[in-house]
């Protein structure tokens, strides 16, 4: 074991969606030196860059942490998969590519909780700044930014019928879930360019790699934040069997996500004192909120048989179809290989008294008994129902003092009765849509939960037994000023200097939609605040 010392202005822990943004923005001017640490490897696996390739990474330990929850007390004691990217680009390199921001009310709620500067009008410019929107620039979208946002490459008859069916039962069409209003049904946009995945690594990190003031260390596992009193002074990390120490003149920035950012804080002595003492970790700060407040979008997973062989199931089962779709992709970047996880979907209210949509519905053009395993041999599709604003809260905590050990993750899903009621209503709505005349020609029958699952209690039991999450964990280092808040509105860890968290873990509450686009927005805004604070410090010293 050897120790080497290097000094940088900023050290970023985690080269995921947020970390790649930070690495780019903090090195743009050339004034600041940055070290970016990533526990995983490079994004050289070719399937990372093919949209449909996300299906190959659910069980791929080379690019996926392969986390799972502890037995969930309200979900039949099951361990539920929690995949997280372990590669440059993080989860943006293995996710389903959907570009969804959530609702304007989500961010206004953050502001109402006391987080100044985080209302919708405050954060919209950062969404626009990040974007290279295929449809062009308008009040809600931008062009020329690093992140490519594109329409579906071609329509699909099942998705067309699904949107028609939703309209037939009374829901509006919506061509832009990220525009003036989220409610309604339509095709999703993807973080892709010309049929290729546009991860945060592709969008932000690759252009920055050539800068001499950026150092990127892969397969570098952070062990501990080093403190000088209450100031973050550096990071100890493991690479190639050695423990290295990197010092920070300016700040240490955690961008490791909602599982690993609280884990590193706890390993470093910042967290619930009783937990730290249990594992013999010296308490630097007793902060009860580190690792608490975990939220995710729980999903009821419905499976249907199709009447026509036009699903991914059929493509995978047939050499001729596989070759055909392979050629379509190679020549035109079309076909099934250009698909994201969900092709079409919508946002609905389960109760007219609810002001904004509280469930998200999808059509996925494949089906399987378990994600990451073999597809069904019959033509099939999956129709998930996602709970958008859960009241249930879980937690993340270290399971040992060894940074190599995965954290203890308790989702505590469906522990709140309201969550149970809303998701059951969502299943009923999905059934109404899929039984309407506009789509019946393509639906051969409901495979799961099946026609025998009828009553509310039966539906809920199925959801608890077979549901999973949308893999949108957030809020474990939440922003705020209450006793359980971890960071302030400038994302500085309370009670410390030179230490911030900039990733999805700072969300006070989960947004009503997919979380990758909001995470990139958080990092864009976070980078601006970091640079503004550095400028203010320099001016103060000069004065």
Describe, in short, the structure shown.
The chain is of the alpha/beta class. The protein has 13 helices and 26 strands. The mean pLDDT is 96.
What attributes does this structure have?
alpha/beta, 20% strand, 543 residues
Number of domains: 1
Tally of alpha and pi helices: 13
Structural class: alpha/beta
Rg from C-alpha positions? Answer: 23 Å
Number of strands: 26
SSE topology:
Blueprint: E1 5-13, H1 17-27, E2 34-37, E3 67-68, E4 81-82, H2 104-112, H3 120-130, E5 131-133, E6 147-149, H4 157-168, E7 184-187, E8 192-193, E9 196-197, H5 200-208, E10 214-217, E11 221-228, E12 231-239, E13 242-254, H6 257-267, E14 270-271, H7 273-278, E15 285-286, E16 298-300, E17 303-306, H8 312-317, H9 319-332, E18 344-348, E19 359-363, E20 380-382, E21 385-387, E22 395-397, E23 408-410, H10 417-434, H11 437-440, E24 443-448, H12 456-466, E25 468-469, E26 499-501, H13 516-542
Parallel strand pairs: 1-2, 1-13, 2-10, 5-6, 13-26, 14-15
Antiparallel strand pairs: 3-4, 7-18, 8-9, 11-12, 12-13, 16-21, 16-25, 17-20, 17-24, 18-19, 19-21, 22-23
Helix pairs in contact: 1-5, 1-13, 3-13, 10-12
């Amino acid at each position: 074991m050897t120790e080497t010392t290097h000094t940088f202005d900023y050290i970023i822990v985690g080269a995921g969606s947020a970390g790649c943004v930070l690495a780019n923005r903090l090195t743009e001017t050339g004034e600041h030196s940055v070290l970016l640490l990533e526990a995983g490897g490079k994004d050289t696996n070719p399937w990372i860059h093919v949209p449909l390739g996300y299906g190959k990474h659910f069980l791929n330990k080379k690019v996926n942490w392969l986390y799972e929850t502890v037995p969930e007390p309200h979900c039949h004691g099951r361990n539920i998969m929690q995949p997280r990217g372990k590669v440059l680009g993080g989860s943006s390199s293995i996710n389903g590519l959907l570009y969804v921001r959530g609702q304007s009310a989500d961010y206004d709620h953050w502001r109402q909780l006391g987080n100044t500067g985080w209302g919708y009008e405050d954060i919209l410019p950062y969404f626009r700044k990040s974007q290279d929107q295929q449809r062009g620039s308008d009040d809600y979208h931008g062009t020329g930014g690093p992140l490519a946002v594109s329409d579906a490459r071609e329509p699909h008859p099942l998705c067309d019928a699904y949107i028609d069916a939703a309209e037939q039962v009374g829901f509006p069409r919506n061509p832009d879930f990220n525009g003036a209003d989220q409610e309604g049904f339509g095709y999703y946009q993807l973080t892709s360019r010309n049929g290729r995945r546009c991860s945060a690594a592709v969008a932000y990190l690759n252009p920055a790699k050539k800068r001499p003031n950026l150092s990127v260390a892969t397969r570098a596992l952070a062990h501990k934040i080093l403190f000088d009193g209450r100031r973050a002074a550096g990071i100890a990390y493991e690479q190639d069997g050695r423990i290295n120490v990197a010092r920070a003149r300016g700040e240490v920035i955690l961008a490791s996500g909602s599982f690993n950012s609280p884990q590193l804080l706890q390993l470093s002595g910042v967290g619930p004192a009783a937990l730290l003492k249990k594992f013999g970790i010296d308490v630097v700060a007793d902060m009860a909120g580190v690792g608490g407040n975990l939220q995710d979008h729980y999903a009821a997973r419905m499976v249907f048989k199709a009447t026509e062989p036009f699903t991914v199931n059929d493509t995978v089962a047939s050499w001729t179809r596989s070759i055909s779709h392979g050629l379509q992709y190679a020549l035109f970047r079309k076909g099934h290989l250009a698909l994201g996880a969900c092709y079409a979907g919508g946002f609905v209210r389960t109760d007219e008294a609810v002001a904004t949509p509280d469930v998200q519905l999808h059509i996925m053009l494949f089906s399987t008994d378990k994600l990451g395993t073999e597809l069904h041999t019959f033509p099939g599709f999956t129709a998930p129902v996602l709970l958008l604003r859960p009241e249930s809260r879980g937690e993340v905590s270290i399971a040992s003092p060894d940074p190599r050990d995965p954290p203890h993750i308790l989702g505590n899903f469906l522990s709140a009765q309201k969550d149970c009621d809303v998701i059951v209503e969502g299943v009923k709505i999905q059934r109404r849509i899929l039984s309407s005349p506009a789509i019946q020609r393509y639906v051969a029958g409901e495979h799961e939960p099946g026609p025998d699952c009828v009553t509310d209690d039966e539906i809920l039991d199925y959801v608890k037994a077979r549901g999973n999450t949308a893999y949108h964990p957030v809020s474990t280092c939440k922003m705020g000023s209450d006793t359980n808040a971890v960071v302030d509105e400038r994302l500085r860890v309370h009670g410390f200097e030179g230490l911030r968290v900039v990733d999805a873990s700072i969300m006070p509450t989960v947004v009503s939609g997919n979380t990758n686009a909001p995470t990139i927005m958080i990092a864009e805004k976070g980078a601006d605040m970091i640079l503004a604070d550095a400028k203010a410090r320099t001016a103060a010293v000069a004065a």
